[in-house]
Fold each of these.
Amino acid sequence: MRFIGTMASMFGLGAVAMPSLVRAGVEAVESGTTGTVADTFLKDAPEFSPEESANIIIRMQRELKQAMRKPIEQRRWVMVIDLRKCTGCGACTISCIAENHLPAGVVYRPVMEEEIGSYPNVSMRSIPRPCMQCETAPCVPVCPVNATWIRKDGIVDMDYDQCIGCRYCMTACPYHARTFDFGYAYTDGTPARQPYEDIPSFEYNKRWSQRRGQSPAGNVRKCHFCVHKLDAGMLPSCVTSCIGYATYFGDASDPDNLVAELISRTNKIRLKEEMGTRPRVYYLI
Amino acid sequence: MNNQQSKQNGLSRRDFLRSSALVGGCAALSVSCQRAQDLADKAESGGLSPDQFYQLADANNIIYTTCMNCNTGCGIKAKIVDGVLIKVDGNPYSPWTMTPHIDYHHNPAKAGIAKLDGAICPKGQAGIQILYDPYRIRKVLKRTGKRGAGGWKSIPFDQAIQEIVDGGRLFADVPGEESREVEGLESICSLRDPQLMSQMRADAARIASGEMTVEEFKNKHSENLQHLIDSEHPDLGPRNNQLVFNWGRMKAGRSQFVERFISNAFGTVNRIGHTTVCQGSLYFACRAMSEQYVNGQWSGGRKFYWQADLKNADFVIFAGSNAFEGGYGPPLRTPKITNGLTERRFKFAVVDPRMGKLGGMAWKWVPAKPGSEAALALAMIRWIIENQRYDQRYLEAANKAASDAVGEPNWSNAPWLVKMADDGAPGDFLRVVDLPESIRPEGDTDRFLVSRNGRLIAVDPNDAKHAVTGDLLVDTQVEGIAVRSSMQLLYESACENSLQGWADLCGIRERDIIELAREFTAHGKKAGADIHRGVSQHTNGYLNVAAWMSLNLLIGNFGWKGGMIESATYNASGTGSGQPYPVNNMHPGRLSPFGISIIRDRFEYEKSTLFNGYPSKRPWYPLADSIFQEVIPSAGDAYPYSIKALMLYMGAPNYSLPAGNELNAILADTQKIPLFIANDITIGATSAYADYIFPDGTYFERWEFHGSHGSVAQKVQPVRTPVVSPLVDSCTVFGQEMSMSLESMMMAIAERMGLSGFGPDGFGAGKELTHPDHYYLKMVANIAADGSPVPDANEAEESVFLRSRRHISEATFDLERWKASVDPKWWKKVVYVLNRGGRFQAYADTYRGEQLTNAYARQINLYCEKSARFRNSMTGVRYDGIARHYPVLDSLGRRLEDDEKEFPLQLSTYRQSMQTKTRTNSAYWLLAVVPDNAILMDRITAEANGYQSGDEVVIKSASNPDGIWDLGELGKRRVVGKIKVVEGMRPGVVTFSLGFGQWGNGASDMQVDGDVIRRDERRARGINANAVMTVDPFLKNTSLSDPIGASVVFYDTRVRLEAV
Amino acid sequence: MLATASAPRLNRIHDYRISLTIAICALLIGAYGVFKVLVLKEHGALTSYVPWGLWVGAYVFLVWLEVGMIISYFILRRYLGVDGLRLLAPVAMLAAISALLGALFVIAMDLGHPFRFWKAYLQPNFGSLMSWMIWLHTLYLVILIAELFAYFKGRDYVDRWKIYLNFLTYISIPFGILLIAVIGGLFGVVAARPFWNASVLPLMFFIASLVAGVGLLTLLHLLFSPTKGTPMYEETAKHMARIFMGAIIIGVVASLANGLVIAYPNVPAHAEGLKLVLFGPYWWTIWIVHLGLGVVVPLLLLTFFRDKLIAIGIAAAFYLIGFTMVPVNIIIPGLAYPMPTMEGVMEAFSHPKLSFEYTPALMEWLVVIFAVGISLLVFTVGYRFIVEPYLREHH
Ligand SMILES: Nc1nc2c(c(=O)[nH]1)N[C@H]1C(S)=C(S)[C@@H](COP(=O)(O)OP(=O)(O)OC[C@H]3O[C@@H](n4cnc5c(=O)[nH]c(N)nc54)[C@H](O)[C@@H]3O)O[C@H]1N2
Ligand SMILES: Nc1nc2c(c(=O)[nH]1)N[C@H]1C(S)=C(S)[C@@H](COP(=O)(O)OP(=O)(O)OC[C@H]3O[C@@H](n4cnc5c(=O)[nH]c(N)nc54)[C@H](O)[C@@H]3O)O[C@H]1N2
Ligand code: SF4
Ligand code: SF4
Ligand code: SF4
Ligand code: SF4
Ligand code: SF4
Ligand SMILES: [Mo]
């Protein structure tokens, strides 16, 4: 959406975003974490045999730790979803809800399904849709208050405390990847609201309440590649919970990373490539 | 939890629990929010690094346990923050959730392990919502109105125990029951003398074998006849049998505990599971195929079945086996398939009228007609035999030595000769004793015979020294007796139709059959047929299974890498050598119950004193057990006897059984079931009809040992252990505080009745069994000790063990009590096992060369002599010993003549990955993905009938012409659902998924302690069409069943849809 | 050229008590909606897939109307020589100010966190057209207030207030155009929404705003012109009726052109929104309310009863009522269907708030009523205590 910038300069005022205080704070945290994390998990890294390491989860976890040792601007996170392996089980959808304490009506990773062909020649395809973490994310420039931005490692970040809830970003995302937190709980209206809906979530390395009226309620929410888990040296939840082993994650800037191999193949596509959004989520077909 | 606290938590009075009988609220919460705030403050001030801040990465907040949201039993990591379970992930030590899984010896205290998560399915993820279900009960409920009318009051635990034990006018306040005397358990448990019971048991067996008459029995036991149900029929056993314990889902540990209480302390034979509702005929056909001939008898058949080694197979046919969405189970099978696909190793075909997600990714989807499973397998068998694509070397081996000689892990009786009996059907095997003495070979006359190049050779199957091989296709006469080899019998059965004839029967192309058979035989041992409910849950289920397993046998893939697996488990019951605690043998005064069970399983009609020609009043099942569909209808018909009390645990037969609606009238009838006690976590679909409901802990709050499944190649034993403080109330039994559960209910009954095997001397003098922990920790020690014992837990591990349980109340986790439950030398090993959620063999040890380490290494029966000796009690016809195709038949062996014009469609059913039966309707996360099920219909039928997706229709059948669920007091509901038009269905077949259309578990309004507990509309959506499934026209209150394997039939109903 | 005409007699046709009562009623009724938003944190019938609805529509409507009115006033006076409007200036400015305040209120209520509205001023992202919108809206409001102030202060040509007023009038025009263009651009730049993503959208917005402005001006003239009772009053009204008719026709042609641009390439995703507008569940809003009542009826009235003041008034009122349907018929249809290749999201996860169906909830209407109440209150009070005394004093 450089178009907006162009338009803004057309109006003669330039399109320089006013860097907000919040933004600066987040950057400080981002760079701060790099050191601590790498140290702790190196200490505690178990030795895996070659056989165990054949497990792609173990491999990707190792690669993730390596990436976390690099400065943030040198990481290029990429998610790869192999549609030949996705069975549409929905484990990732639910895992993401549990991990991020998503309230009713909010979803980060729905799985879309389609039947292809006609009887008796039929097949089925399931397409999980996290946030594409677009390199040229249309949702970012539209935000009137800089509550969402692209991190140096490519993740399209958000600050719930900054977001005013105008929902402009939702209209701008071509993937319906942003949903609004209306503050609903799954067990409201039942005999008793349940405790799992009250424990704060860990998103963005903060503790977020689940009460209506408090952020993130009233905010727009979306998948964030589980930044809080990355910082703890862990893979995103939808990756580890994928029972089809169809979801890969890693640092594409490192040629040794599994994802770097995968996205170099001819069977990779990105959704709505024509929009020019340049997603960091690739699909293998 | 008082008002004050709830205000502090910011909960409004409105959403605070109305009735204290339901679980709700969150006592720990105000604390937890504060702690969370502190943490956040600390993090912001830079005092915490992100991975300290992220509490789910901390080993001290993780307990490894085992899921049971479906029966797959995946290893899980329960992640707990401030006492609240908030995330469930896969256990990387478990082969279920990581492929390959990590080595058992990694230390779970290490952050690197704490941060490594395996994959589990969406239901497993949503288990949190089974635990924290606002409709869970926390106190004992007693009904206040008619059964099933929805009125309840909570009563103290001790009072409930006293009432059910002592009996009396328990429902004097219920209109119509003012003067009804309920017989209590104390009185039902009539015969308590172990010696006397053993004697009577032995004599009852003599009556069955004809060694003793009823008169003789009566004379011998004249003083004790009052203990019998019916002195004219001593073989029915003592009155104790009139307590029936029935369950839907129970695994090892609990199962032994229940055996201890129900059978060994209370002394009833009626301890009945639910196998036949799942895949009974699959189990019982494989049991028949695994019977071993030892000491002149067929015995040792294992209740199990083989599944394909998907990790290494090159080709698999999934027949009626829903590997991606149902089955046992998605997390362990999916990655093997999907990795295999992209590695270009694996190819698979799906035989299923519904394409589904599995068929949608298959090399070939074969939508054969429901019920034609054996036909398809036999067609392939015919082609394979005629094209000689079977493994001749393997099949010719007729005993152990021969199989060893050709490097096979097991052998079959394919070459053995069978005598053709007078009725024209194959009978017993030809034995040496059948030969005239002149030509008898030396030695044992009980040996079998094979023919090799026209010569007869005697076979001792278990002989490891003398290899015997035999010709495969033999059809000859031996001394005037017509004999055929087992393989020949199979071939003849396969020749009942031409390939084209079979193809027509299956409604597919001949080409499909040949392609399947060619591919199946093109990969050596690395191919398999993986079958499940779609094959077994038909009236011809047992023989369908036999046909498909015979197909596997033709390529001899059992025990091979990439072939078929038999599961292996570490023994929890302690009966193995070197194991410290054979728990159920440690039972002073233990009873050995006897008598014919209410479901007449494992007993021959002809040998009972009830024998009165054919048909019997209800079927008998000499080869099967755990016949779920027979329990309540048999009580309804009082055949073979009436019952006095029913205890139901974790099952919902009226919802889950085909024609389950027929049960409601019986359940509501206080004459037929005078006392009905349920153990449940909510007011469930069936427990809604109970007199009393005792609360239980969910699988996150209790013990169990889940065992394994055929698709797991490793030797394993997953452990289920409490991970949070149970949400139910506590009770005091034997002076110990414990949370209410199945165990505490049983122990309290035992305490009040003074039954053996429980209490301060429960395990023997001075060895207490006063808390369930005493029992289960011993079993954990057994697991730790099996084979070569596990190492001791080190200090770091012990610390993690303790700290991760710091939030669990003493009634459940008390270190001193836990430690005291086992000998100190086992304690650290117990910790070692619990810290990993069970015991799992190393991945590296799974295979030995091209074979499985835990390979099936015994005989496999192609021809099942034992089966062929029994008769169908309804028709008097002998069971088949070899695979054969039959059409759909009723209990009297008659073809069902449903009018295809009136009922043009065939009804089927399946599961989808988001739901599991009657208990996931509380999992709101899952309901957000699939809020509702639908009636799947193919486009062609839809177009022909003008249906569109979203149209609401009612389903009607000949058995249920109005399409009505009759729920008794709860009212009548129509079997209505929405159509979804798809391409991936066989035209003419409609199907619906399991888990919707509920009335239990918060799907109906209930009254508890005067408060109306409103139903949650989300929990009541969708359709369950079990009510229209065909009722057996003779039995009238039960669905169709397989006469041999006893499977209940889900897929053989013709229906008509009508727009609403 | 401004002050040459002889001062007409002020005609008190406006009884402020009626409008005060209406305003207070609106505030009282609407308060419940505002309570729901601010206290219960409800967001009406909006969903995650249709995140903007009535409130944004009301906002756009109000801004269009007021900016259009100010600009058309300028054009009519400067270039079309409708001198009879001279004394309407303070009324028009006051109307614009009050409506802009209401608009600001309604858009604040639309936020998930209304009390963070300040962030839009203090931590803006000028890469976002929404920031521009808020800033321009506010600046524009300030300019209008300043203009009104200068108007009251200014005496003659050499008075510095008069010079300020002139200056402010001149800059208010480009600011107004910019504001409308930015609002148009706000939708137009959203490439994800094919129905909005038309390059003509800002222009469309501008035209629409002008037509509506002429309509409102006509109505204001009829109701509040101090010239009432003079021949000039009627003459001006008739003059305006003709201009208004032309404006309506230009507006219709422009909409047609826009529709054609969307429909012509026959890209399903683009046409989907148009289909929703024309044949969707709310087809009647465009066909009956907007085109029928709002266009055809006024055109007929203006053709056949062009000399009857009452007919002109009714035509203008009808046009404005029908015109309320225009913004919502641009905003909602742009959102109310899944984006291309994303159709599966509808089935993938369900919640009442994950729906592409949207019908404004009662509470949303209440909030709009409250906003109208605010506008009316400001207008009434302003008129009663500032404008009217001023006019009385000076003319
Ligand atoms: N998601 C989920 N998973 C579960 C469970 C659950 O409740 N939910 N429960 C567990 C339990 S208890 C069990 S027993 C297993 C059952 O596991 P499966 O037997 O694998 O599962 P189902 O889906 O019941 O049925 C198997 C398949 O048979 C097909 N089928 C139906 N009729 C016919 C027929 O006539 N012929 C053929 N060839 N196929 C037919 C169905 O379309 C379905 O695909 O699943 C376990 N796993
Ligand atoms: N249409 C259709 N029907 C089917 C099938 C199908 O594929 N289609 N599948 C069949 C199969 S394979 C099976 S296994 C059956 C299953 O059917 P059932 O064996 O009847 O099993 P559930 O419905 O799981 O039983 C649920 C009851 O157990 C309670 N419960 C849950 N957890 C606990 C616990 O921890 N403790 C106690 N005490 N109670 C608990 C629940 O509240 C509920 O009342 O359904 C069968 N029915
Ligand atoms: S997918 Fe949508 S929300 Fe995510 S970065 Fe791209 S535009 Fe933004
Ligand atoms: S909703 Fe929040 S993040 Fe999205 S554009 Fe508005 S302020 Fe920015
Ligand atoms: S990366 Fe994290 S936030 Fe994004 S979909 Fe996966 S689990 Fe959800
Ligand atoms: S968990 Fe994996 S296989 Fe399942 S739907 Fe998600 S991406 Fe597909
Ligand atoms: S398959 Fe899913 S529900 Fe079943 S045991 Fe495994 S994780 Fe639990
Ligand atoms: Mo089952």
Amino acid sequence: MSRALTFRNGVHPGDAKELTAASPIRRLPFPDEVVLPLRQHTGAPAKLLVRAGDRVERGDMIGAAAGFISSPVHASAAGRVRSIGPWPHPSGGFEPAVRIVVDRYAAQMPRRRLVPDWEGLAPKEIVSAVQAAGVVGLGGAAFPAHVKLSPPADQTIDTLVVNGCECEPYLTSDHRVMLEYADRVYTGVRIMLRCLGIERAVVGIERNKPDAIETMRRAAPRDLDIEVVGLDVKYPQGAEKMLIKVLLDREVPSGGLPGNVGAVVQNVGSIAMLAEVFETGLPLIERIVTVTGPGVRKPGNWIVPVGTKLCDLIEGSGGLDDDASEIIFGGPMMGASVASLDTPVLKGTSGVLVLSTNETRLRDSHPCIRCGRCLEACPVFLNPQRLGSLARKESFSEMLEHNLMDCMLCGCCSYACPSNIPLSHLFATAKAALRRRPAA
Amino acid sequence: MTPSNIIDSIVIVAGVCLVFGALIAIVHGKFRVFEDPRIDATVELLPGTNCGACSTPGCRAFAEALVSGEQQPAACTVMSPEDREDVAELLGVEAGQANPRVARLLCAGGSDVAVQSAEYRGFESCKAAAAVAGGGKGCTWGCLGLADCELSCDLDAIQMDARDIPVVTPDLCTACGDCVDACPKDLFVLMPREQHLIVQCKSELEGDEADALCRVACNGCGKCVLDAADGVIDMVNGLAVIDYTQNVSADPNATARCPTGAIAWVEKAQFESPGGEG
């Protein structure tokens, strides 16, 4: 193959995927309680539909979508609503959430199909069924899936980019999905292609997953125009802008979305989920979570109900190691630390990483030596060194002039910095400050 | 070098000076900008803190606004009443009704009473800590105690006490609002000084959940609502909220039965003086 199979810049962190890459996806027992925050996705939080004391069945809608860029929330287990109130949320604060005490003796199977079969539906009907089923991106940002399936009229989409990179170290859920549910992924691809009215899909998989590349090549349906491409291993290859650059050689403009260059990107986990909701007739109420890291006794890839509390998930993974020190929702590069073991798994929680004291040792930060490694690492060509010094001065609005908003907080600059300057933490701080008080 | 060289250069330099001096004098006469002398006189009387509490950028801008009649002397909350009268007299205007305000912290959960659920390790700033799991304090609404406000205060009116809670010295505070901007948890509020009844908590948790995270949290019991005059306090989302327009009918009785001390009657500084090291 002639083209370069990677993007410019980026870093090479150790991938540490061997902990769970060979662990088949398994189901954990139902927890005693699930907690479902109404904000689990990008966009407006869902509108509450239940009251304390209500009986809910598995799959019942308990929060309705509040607009187009919003997604409903469904009960992930049959039981009784215990209370509704603020609850620790992976984003750091407390968010309104519905606590459901799981009924131990319920069959946990709904009496009827809640999502219609897609085969007979027109594209528009599929899209609304996708929204009604609460399907969102499972990679982390939890962007509502139906929005990706309904591009605005001024955009011409020609390619579906299937993201099988899983470039975050430690995480293996997408890897396992490709190995175990390749057919389901392609059913999802078929559904997405029909909604978008296009023919072509390109699957990008990093070469550290040769078995997944092999499986996906073998399973690719002959009647669709599908290309499976093995990509060089480099972080953040799975960021959608990087992936579009390498697979389609198109550059998404600053502030733009993949739609601006005719592409829709979705990761394999989300695509498999799309197929799954139509296959089982159940809305998005469970997901695959990689529980991994040196701080957990029995790492694995588990299917759990959305809303499973961190403590139950850890217990199902053999418990915490004695020197476990930090728990991160997501991967080590972009994931968010959580402060409470009551924090529930959301639709967008791709992994739970437990680090031990060895990995979380805080190294002293030294002054910048102007070596330029952060510039060479930044995949969106920003100047982290300049942004970092502005952040220290709290010149947040000036940071905007240096394109802070193009920063996706991938963490490459922090990883590359020999002085251990917490660059991406500084940028996250600046972004939070600007959200609180937009620059005048 | 001969004496004539020296005389020549003196004459030339003096001549150039005269020509340019004359030019400057003419330009000054023609293009002179008149500035009201009262502005300088007013600036002399102003406190010179440049705090911005009057909503103009600095004392000089405030003086200009005073002279042009856009503002009243009372808009400066830092001046003493005597100075205010002097300014009013100088400009021949009404001093106006002063409404001195002070920054109040809506959290009393110091490290001695509030639970820490995780340890934040990173650079020492509340804003940075708030970006990591909310800062690791059990109560997500509470003060993180890393002193962004103390740093933001140009007047040394804020000092962290031994329990990592900022203490505002009312006599130094000009209500400029810098701490309001600095706090990532939005815990500072500028309040009129004569407003004494304050709910020092923003936690939306109720009952045992609130108590479990902080011993001085408002747990939403509602006793203060009953004890205060009608309409002064209302319960919103498990938190006592004071209607400050009803200020005249607020009295210390409302705090009497508060089981946690979240609602307080504050006359001076909110907490013990910060001097006490230990």
